[in-house]
Amino acid sequence: MKRIFETIDPWKIVQTSLDNADNCPAESVTSMGNGYMGARGNYEEHYSATTLKGTYIAGVWVPDVTRVGWWKNGYPRYFGKVINAPDFLSFDLYLNGERFDLAKADVKKFYREVDMHTGIMTRTVVLNTKWGELELRSTRFFSCQRKEIACMRYAVKSNGFQGTVRVETGISADVYNTDANYGEQFWRVLDASCEQPEVQLTARTHENVFGIERFTVCITAFTQGGQCSRQKSEDGKTVNQVFEKQLVPGGDALALEKYVSVVTSRDHAPPQLSSCGLDLLREAVQAGMQTLEEEQRSVWAARWQMCDVAIEGDDAAQQGIRFNLFQLLCTYDGSDARLNIGPKGFTGEKYGGAAYYDTEGYCFPLYLAVAGPEVARSLLMFRYNTLEKARENAAKLGVGGALYPMVTFNGEECHNEWEITFEELHRNAAIVYAIYCYTQYTGDESYLKEYGYKVALEVARFWVSRSTYNAHKDCYMLLGVTAPNEYENNINNNWLTNYMAKWCIEYALYSTELAGVRLEQAEREKMREVAQKMYLKEDAERGVFVQQDGFFDKDLRPVSDIPADELPICKHWSWDRILRSCYIKQADVVLAFYYFPHRFTQQQKRTNFDFYEPMTVHESSLSPSMYSVVASASGRYQEAYRLYQRAARLDLDNFNADTEDGLHITSMAGSWLAVVQGFAGLNYHGEHLAFTPRCPEAWRRVSFRILYRGRLLAVSFDSAQFCLDILEGDALTVEVDGKAYCCKQSISVPVSND
User: Is 154 in contact with 241 (CB distance < 8 Å)?
Assistant: First the structure.
């Protein structure tokens, strides 16, 4: 663990020094977006030290060729990747004709903050130069009111500096992805113009042989703050406005305001992109920077009023969960049903930037509770609309039903690791689990009756087709799978995978009956047989579910036996050594206790938690939060708190030493789950809401809001008292520590500390 920024502020991310060695993690942490577009926290000026320069647009991607060195039928045709969009955030600075390089500058003072309450980033840098002291000030935000607009302020002020400053700023398509092959670029410039007051660049993604849509992006920029000239690079990839001013000591400054519009062929016909971009930009310029900032503050204030989780008494825990919620809302706000929640959001290029099962397994309950059923339903429709592609994916394996992709943009599998793409099958169950969550939480069965049962049925057909009957043991097995614990591949009978398959089949039978769909008797009986005879092994002596065949043949040792300088093992051990070890990457068996807490006894949760957690290295960002929820459910509250801290501050403290690649966006919902489903004990199985609140000793009080069946609820609790207020909606029956209360407007009841 290495804390990237030492300052702890409940509402801000604060950087007080420029550290070239940790620049990439710092860029990740200061990333921002508005659901439509976003960017890493790259410096505006030229920066020659290590950097991952990235600006991204939601839904804009390219298929990259997947080359397989030997025979693998069914292997994905391509690897889908989010691409670095043309750069419009740079302000290239020249001092007396010399290009300024921030990485080599003599920095006297450095301050940068991301205000999470407003979604605005500001920075101040004081420099010692050979011509005197100079101060740089910048402001940046992506408008949440006007999704296609980005805004910047940039000022160069003399604190003693004397000489000429020149600033070049505009748009450049001369950009690269970090994982591009042989320096490949993905944009083909169609038009670059600097004839109007605005500069404009239109580019299209490169050709592909897969029939995948090519995207056209038009970016228009206008910067004001004095007289300027305009220039276009010789290769036509860059258009700039150029500002120049002679500064004298005494506070003289060059102050600029930049407005940018970004429009794409996802939303507009290509022939209209130029005019549409100009219109949107001019409207923003006319409104003015102050108005746009006020709009930004207003939108974020409304968001926080609904989704904030307030933790009193622990600023580090408070900052962590707000940071996670902030980044989730920067990534996805539910306004576009075509989109999903990428595991890196707008913060990096790792994992391709596409939709994973993380959305359904981890993010869905959060969006369901704070964004409402409409947003949650949009996420469900994303999967329903790609059901046919999931059928095609299953057919590649030679089995029936539907296998939802591990990674996708459009419903087609585009991940390039076989062990994950076609062995990590448990993701199929997460899709159905989200349907179950929606129906249970909202009480609305209409989605299940019209759409959801079709998804559940095809997933069940996949499990039946993929299972193998063992005549000797008279049971059905799932062979050759990869579990959530990806530190083992091609294993047999992963307990969680088998359990979820059994549940999916049972749920499909229930949902088809609810929808009035009659299956052929033979198919129905086959489904029941597979579900009833699914192989689920339990070790009676230890009292635990067996993670998979052969796990107990390993040398079972706790993580504490690993030397500290060998952690994380993924960065120090060979893959062979990892696969042979007992060490677990992330929650596996215990994940079932998060999915279905009502199906297991507290003793089962406790025994399995105590057995598996000491062997878990938590080198997946998804892991700590799941263990935290289960730790709370099993009465292991100190462990729950420790694991919450790791989940909440995973990127802020760089626990897994990989924050430089981008933030772990989809796992960020886990800190909310650890508080709301863990410490608050929220459970919505059955007809009414239930809580088992337990406040960590380090916290004075916790409060949050949720939407539930047409009601807006405010929840708060400490070590002694639980309070619930109905802010909107009808009376509600709620259980607290197993006792039912009728809440007409508010209740306050003592907390059991058993």
Answer: no
